[in-house]
């Protein structure tokens, strides 16, 4: 019902131009309440509500439709409602941004902007700029900004954010970067939606600054090479979607600004409308990648759609290069893919080509040459080429009438040269049509299945004549000749014309009907006529009916009465079943020839046609509608709007509309004859097959299951019948097909079931109770097969509701089945009892508080997130935790951890004191009947013992996981009955804790977690869960997490538990985080790898609270810079040490003091296992990946780089200085380059960049990733561009040799790798237009190329190079940058060929 009314309102508000804000105002809060109740249901996960899968999209669309009509003050109210949810460490952040995205109105008129986006724009754009790790909600912010930009073009200055916007969009494309093809592995599902990114870019285009166009050109320059047909990867789909949607979006904006009828919506100011030059610049920047994408591995569809839109804007820039690629493709027979791609693209630009106009007047002259050259594409040996050729010819023949206009040359003398050429060319239309028809007939001839027969007289006849001359023997064939069927199919298609055309061939058609009537049943095609029939045509139709229908009806009547025996072939005549529509009894057919399934299928088909056929079939109409829309998209002019469709399209649309009307209106009245036919269908479906009724209930694959209809009267009868059928003697349950049917039926009911409303004033409640009892009667039957018992229990579990407690009998049934022998039943019982406990939950009283009164501080004058004086009272403070009952009851506990971090709720409610809450410690007599059932069972030691035994069994070996359903069960137990069952459970808990098996540990964890969460409302004596409530747990965990008792596994587990507990408390436990960090810092050199990994994970959580977001106060929790400074201080003794760092053996319980250098070595080896360098590399890469993906901010990058510098030094001074170490070492730094980095942080010490070979190679690899992922930020800083250019060229020219312990030949090879990497980096920077071959660079390279090699001279015999013959000369040759520079330039661009050629020549 909700979806029905929602869709109705959506349709009413669909055309918002017709209703202004003055006409209509809609409240937003009822929509919010409905979305909150359904999309964030607190009971759905417990099975108390079942919503349809489509409800989310329907509700969001409803909000979107209502959004323009929200009151002016709605924005301020929404911000007050959802700002308290904005805690970046909590899942509520996602919820808040989701609500902002779908609810915030952005189409307010300019005079109301101060009540609209200006209230939140600076706040949210600042948040977006600050985040680095692409959280899921960042993409939703982009969606909001895109909508805001579109609705307010010209009213927001986006220029300060443009570099950041394009950098983020480029990064979101997830392209492989650099020579090592580094691919961002993170958060692929959180990447920006290309559609919204395109809308955002389009809305920012234009205006005085032209900054967006500059960056857009830079974006396509940097990614053009990825569109090359040789490239492929999962990132290609995003690139193609970008290419497809951006031109379409620009066309929509141009239509809005230039052609759309003005409405109440805010118009685009003249200063920000797109100019002709803007359009030209846009087409120019995108055309090259589009032309490359024509031959993409993913197909040419996206490129064709892009070209279609681009041609609407600038045909003179788009069509010529497309034609340059098309004409050669039409002449080539060996590259069908190229032909298919080019024809597809020409189809896209066809309308712009034939339209001519001022932009491309010579366009129509290409039409006839293209048509003539396309004729060879009608090739029976290549189906795909043939189809695209047909589409190509159909498109042009639809756009231009094939009429010979050459005579106009003699009639008019005012034609232009192009018009004269066109008129002259139309004389060749007749030749084209004749050749085309010849090829079509040739295709038809070659499409028959029998190609090898010799030429006979029949072959020489026309198809019509061949049908007339059929042999009499064919009439008795069971299987008809395939060629005959093919010819009949062709005839049926060409007779789909008005009757006037058919009258010319009436005699031949009658003869064909006489010869073929008993061979085929597709005579409905004859009746499709799209004009008012003349009296002669009507007479001919009645003649056919009188000649062929009447005799057959008489035969069928006699057959139905048993007076006439009919052979199988005549019984297949389609017209015979027509009598069934008028009441023919077919008992005789069912009783005597029930095995004649062909006839029965035809009977069913014709009954279905009579019920649903109104001139055409729905599936045929849908196919034609889909085809029409495809043709319309390929021919429409989106720039000028819908009224610019060609006449042929409008005619097709009228025909389809008429057909839709007949399908929708004709025969929609339900009559008795319809009911009779439905009963006939039911009888046929269940005539002699026991599974027929199951098929009726199941429905077709995509249809509605009758057993899950939204109707109490239906399911009250069907569900118990399904369960009881397990004992039916008529069911052949030994047949696998029957069993599969029941499985499919049960699965479909569960998939499609939606909670049915209960009208407590009608008989619905009685139906509900009857259904529950009937299902219980069914599953409790003796000898019921286990499968049907499980089906019945599953259906019973669907009847749990949040507005009515399950009947007592059902509650007892589910509780008892917690100890059922079958694990499937136990799982269903656990879920059901958890839901029942939620139904029985008592309401707890809440009261409103003022947090500012509690803190003693006034409300801040502006938004300030984080640790503030007014929320300090929520922090965990070991000095003020409640230790007495009085302190406990006087404390104000806030369970929601996100409240207070950003802002306080406008109406903040907390639970009232203990004395105002429902009574705890109740006796059995105080419980309701339903509660007594649960109480009795869980008070029974034997029942509990059996339950714990089952729960501690291993479910799936090696795959046992914490089960949320079991947790919810025990949470409900301890919430509803407090500690009543602890005496029974405690011995089992103690036993389980002492057991080391994984399944028992999992079981006890589920119970204890339920105990902690369920104790929320316990009294002081029983304790509960605000961090101040759980102080005993945290203090216990913090006592000695790395005591060593139980080994490294137990230590890691203790840390894991502590980490989970602290992570749940987020920002409210700074004291505990400081204490934990102080405890862990001396333990960073732990010898055990699993402990080190867990320490690293814990540190991630500790520093997660240190965020650099706008309007955020400095955190009271540990801060990253302070920690990093302490680590660097410990590494400082290693910075000036040149000797090799030995593999020191770290003892877990070392004795004696260690110097600073030894401690530094240990710290550096923290990531390294004892003797495994490969593991060191893996750990380092993992560390860097975590740092780049976590909350790492730009100002932290230099600190991390310093740590990594020491790490690189560690690699260099050990044995790993060989060639193999270079790529592995460099890859570790690439993730770090993905962090947004302001140029001011880079190259601050560029004079000191020289380091080891590893360092130089690593710098270049890091540089590739860093520049690409921060491309537009760097491009807006000239100093950064100069520094990067200097660095790359310097490494390209580097002539130093490191000839210490390393052999000369190895150093030479390493330097070659470094120099090649520098050349690759230079090529990449040139290719993405980060650097350009300007005059200074060209002069510099020319001078390098002119450098002459020194002559070979004698050396001292003691020179180390003498061990390698001619090494000196070889090295000097290698240092010449000429070949590398030239190759890198050629790879990057061909625009400077003359300069490169000149350099080579000199």
Protein model, in words:
- It is a single chain.
- By secondary structure, this protein is mainly α.
- The chain is built from 63 helices and two strands.
- Strands 1-2 form a two-stranded antiparallel sheet.
- α8 (162-172) runs parallel beside α10, α36 runs antiparallel to α37 and α58 runs antiparallel to α59.
- The protein is globular and about 110 Å long.
- 30% of the residues are buried.
- This is Proteasome activator complex subunit 4.
- GO terms for molecular function: peptidase activator activity; proteasome binding.
- InterPro entries: ARM-type_fold, Blm10_mid, HEAT_PSME4, PSME4.
- Residues 810-1022 form the Proteasome activator complex subunit 4-like HEAT repeat-like domain.
Task: Sum up the structure in keywords.
single chain, 1402 residues, mainly alpha, two-stranded antiparallel sheet, 2 strands, globular, disordered C terminus
Secondary-structure-based class equals mainly alpha
Going across the major beta sheet, what is the strand order? 1-2
How does the overall form come out from the CA principal axes? globular
Termini separation (Å)?
82 Å
Poorly predicted runs of 5 or more residues: 449-461, 519-529, 568-584, 1137-1153, 1166-1191, 1212-1228, 1241-1250, 1297-1308, 1352-1378, 1390-1402
Count of helical stretches? 63
Radius of gyration: 40 Å
Largest sheet: 2 strands, antiparallel
- Total strands: 2
Average of pLDDT? 78
| Strand fraction | under 5%
Work out the helicity level: 55-70%
């Amino acid at each position: 019902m909700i979806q029905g009314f929602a869709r109705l309102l959506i349709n009413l508000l669909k055309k918002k131009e017709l209703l202004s804000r003055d006409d209509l105002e809609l409240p937003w809060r009822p929509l919010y309440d409905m979305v909150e109740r359904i999309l964030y249901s607190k009971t759905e996960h417990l099975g108390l509500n079942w919503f349809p899968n489509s409800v989310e999209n329907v509700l969001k669309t409803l909000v979107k439709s209502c959004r323009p009509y929200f009151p002016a003050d709605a924005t301020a109210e929404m911000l007050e409602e959802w700002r308290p949810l904005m805690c970046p460490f909590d899942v509520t952040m996602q919820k808040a941004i989701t609500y902002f995205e779908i609810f915030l109105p952005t189409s307010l008129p300019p005079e109301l902007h101060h009540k609209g986006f200006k209230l939140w724009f600076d706040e949210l754009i600042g948040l977006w700029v600050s985040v680095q790790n692409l959280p899921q909600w960042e993409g939703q912010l982009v969606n909001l900004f895109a909508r805001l930009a579109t609705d307010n073009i010209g009213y927001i200055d986006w220029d300060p954010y443009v570099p950041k916007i394009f950098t983020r969009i480029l990064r979101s494309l997830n392209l492989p970067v650099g020579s090592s093809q580094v691919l961002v592995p993170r958060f692929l599902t959180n990447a920006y939606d290309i559609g919204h990114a395109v809308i955002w870019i389009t809305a920012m285009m234009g205006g005085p600054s032209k900054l967006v166009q500059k960056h857009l050109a830079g974006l396509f320059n940097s990614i053009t090479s990825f569109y090359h047909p040789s490239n492929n990867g999962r990132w290609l789909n995003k690139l193609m979607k970008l290419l497809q949607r951006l031109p379409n979006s620009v066309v929509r904006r141009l239509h809005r600004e230039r052609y759309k009828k003005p409405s109440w919506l805010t118009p685009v100011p003249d200063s920000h409308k797109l100019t002709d030059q803007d359009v030209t610049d846009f087409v120019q920047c995108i055309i090259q990648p589009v032309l490359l994408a024509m031959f993409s591995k993913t197909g040419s569809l996206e490129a064709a759609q892009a070209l279609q839109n681009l041609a609407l804007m600038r045909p003179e820039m788009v069509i010529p290069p497309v034609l340059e690629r098309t004409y050669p493709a039409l002449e080539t027979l060996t590259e069908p893919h190229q032909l298919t791609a080019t024809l597809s693209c020409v189809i896209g630009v066809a309308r712009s080509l034939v339209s001519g106009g001022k932009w491309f007047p010579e366009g129509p002259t290409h039409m006839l040459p293209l048509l003539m050259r396309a004729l060879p594409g009608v090739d029976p040996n290549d189906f795909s080429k043939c189809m695209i050729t047909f589409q190509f010819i159909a498109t042009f023949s639809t756009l231009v009438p094939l009429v010979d206009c050459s005579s106009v040359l003699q009639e008019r003398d005012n034609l232009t040269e192009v018009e004269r050429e066109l008129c002259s060319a139309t004389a060749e239309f007749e030749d084209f049509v004749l050749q085309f028809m010849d090829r079509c007939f040739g295709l038809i001839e070659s499409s028959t299945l029998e190609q090898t027969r010799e030429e006979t007289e029949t072959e020489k006849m026309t198809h019509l004549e061949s049908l007339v001359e059929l042999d009499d023997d064919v009439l008795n064939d069971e299987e008809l000749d395939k060629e005959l069927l093919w010819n009949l199919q062709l005839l049926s298609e060409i007779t789909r014309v008005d009757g006037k055309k058919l009258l010319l061939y009436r005699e031949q058609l009658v003869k064909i009907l006489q010869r073929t009537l008993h061979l085929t049943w597709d005579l409905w095609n004859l009746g499709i006529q799209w004009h008012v029939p003349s009296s002669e045509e009507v007479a001919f139709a009645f003649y056919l009916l009188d000649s062929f229908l009447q005799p057959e009806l008489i035969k069928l009547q006699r057959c139905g009465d048993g007076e006439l025996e009919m052979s199988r072939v005549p019984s297949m005549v389609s017209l015979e079943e027509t009598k069934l529509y008028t009441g023919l009894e077919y008992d005789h057919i069912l009783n005597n020839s029930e095995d004649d399934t062909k006839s029965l299928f035809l009977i069913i088909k014709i009954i279905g046609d009579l019920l649903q056929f109104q001139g055409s079939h729905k599936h045929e109409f849908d196919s034609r509608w889909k085809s029409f829309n495809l043709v319309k998209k390929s021919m429409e002019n989106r720039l000028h709007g819908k009224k610019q469709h060609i006449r042929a399209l409008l005619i097709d649309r009228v025909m389809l509309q008429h057909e839709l009307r007949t399908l929708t209106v004709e025969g929609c009245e339900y009559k008795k004859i319809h009911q009779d036919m439905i009963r006939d269908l039911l009888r046929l479906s269940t005539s002699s097959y026991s599974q027929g009724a199951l098929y009726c209930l199941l429905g077709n694959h995509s249809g509605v299951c009758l057993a899950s209809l939204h109707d109490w009267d239906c399911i009250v009868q069907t569900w118990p019948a399904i369960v009881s059928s397990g004992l039916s003697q008529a069911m052949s349950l030994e047949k696998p097909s029957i069993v599969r049917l029941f499985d499919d039926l049960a699965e479909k009911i569960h998939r499609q079931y939606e909670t049915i409303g209960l009208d407590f004033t009608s008989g619905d409640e009685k139906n509900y109770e009857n259904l529950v009892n009937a299902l219980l009667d069914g599953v409790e039957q003796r000898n019921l097969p286990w499968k049907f018992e499980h089906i019945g229990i599953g259906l019973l579990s669907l009847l749990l509701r949040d507005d009515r407690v399950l009947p007592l009998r059902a509650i007892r049934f589910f509780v008892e089945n917690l100890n059922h022998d079958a694990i499937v039943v136990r799982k269903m019982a656990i879920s059901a009892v958890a839901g029942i406990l939620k139904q029985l939950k008592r309401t707890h009283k809440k009261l409103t508080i003022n947090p500012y009164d509690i803190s003693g501080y006034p409300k801040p004058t502006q938004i300030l997130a984080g640790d503030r004086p007014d929320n300090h009272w929520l922090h965990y403070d070991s000095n003020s935790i409640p230790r007495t009952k009085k302190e406990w009851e006087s404390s104000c506990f806030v369970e929601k951890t996100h409240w207070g971090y950003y802002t306080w709720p406008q109406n903040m409610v907390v639970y009232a004191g203990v004395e105002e809450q429902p009574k705890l410690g109740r006796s059995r007599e105080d419980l309701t009947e339903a509660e007594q059932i649960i109480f009795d069972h869980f008070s029974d030691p034997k029942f509990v013992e059996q339950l714990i035994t089952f729960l501690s069994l291993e479910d799936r070996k090696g795959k046992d996981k914490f089960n949320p359903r079991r947790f919810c069960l025990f949470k409900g137990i301890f919430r509803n009955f407090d500690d009543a069952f602890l005496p029974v459970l405690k011995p089992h808990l103690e036993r389980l804790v002492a057991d080391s098996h994984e399944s028992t540990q999992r079981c006890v964890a589920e119970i204890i977690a339920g105990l902690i969460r369920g104790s929320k409302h316990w009294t002081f004596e029983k304790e509960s869960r605000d961090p101040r409530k759980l102080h005993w747990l945290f203090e216990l965990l913090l006592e000695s997490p790395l005591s060593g008792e139980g080994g490294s596994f137990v230590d890691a587990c203790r840390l894991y538990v502590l980490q989970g507990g602290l992570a749940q408390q987020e920002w409210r436990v700074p004291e505990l985080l400081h204490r934990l960090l102080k405890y862990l810092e001396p333990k960073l050199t732990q010898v055990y790898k699993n402990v080190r990994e867990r320490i690293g994970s814990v540190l991630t959580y500790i520093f997660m609270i240190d965020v650099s977001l706008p309007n955020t106060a400095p955190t009271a929790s540990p801060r990253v810079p302070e920690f990093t400074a302490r680590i660097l201080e410990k590494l400082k003794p290693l910075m000036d040490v040149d000797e090799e760092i030995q593999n020191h053996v770290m003892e877990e319980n070392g004795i004696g003091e260690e110097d600073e250098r030894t401690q530094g070595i240990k710290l550096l080896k923290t990531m390294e296992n004892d003797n495994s360098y490969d593991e060191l590399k893996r750990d380092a890469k993992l560390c860097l990946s975590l740092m780049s993906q976590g909350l790492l901010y730009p100002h932290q990058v230099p600190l991390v780089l310093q740590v990594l510098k020491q790490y690189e030094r560690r690699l260099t001074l050990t044995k790993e200085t060989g060639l193999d170490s270079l790529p592995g070492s460099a890859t570790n730094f690439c993730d770090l380059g993905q962090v947004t980095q302001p140029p001011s942080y880079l190259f601050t010490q560029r004079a000191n960049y020289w380091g080891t070979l590893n360092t130089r190679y690593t710098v270049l690899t890091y540089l590739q990733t860093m520049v690409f992922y921060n491309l537009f930020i760097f491009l807006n800083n000239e100093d950064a561009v100069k520094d990067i250019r200097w660095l790359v060229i310097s490494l390209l020219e580097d002539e130093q040799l490191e000839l210490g312990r390393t052999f000369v030949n190895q150093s030479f090879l390493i330097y070659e790798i470094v120099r090649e990497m520098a050349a690759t980096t230079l090529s990449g920077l040139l290719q993405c237009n980060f650097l350009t071959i300007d005059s200074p660079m060209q002069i510099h390279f020319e001078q390098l190329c002119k450098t002459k090699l020194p002559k070979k001279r004698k050396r001292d015999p003691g020179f180390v190079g003498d061990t390698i013959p001619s090494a000196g000369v070889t090295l000097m040759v290698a240092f010449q940058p000429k070949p590398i520079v030239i190759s890198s330039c050629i790879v990057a661009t061909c625009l400077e060929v003359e300069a490169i050629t000149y350099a080579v020549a000199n």
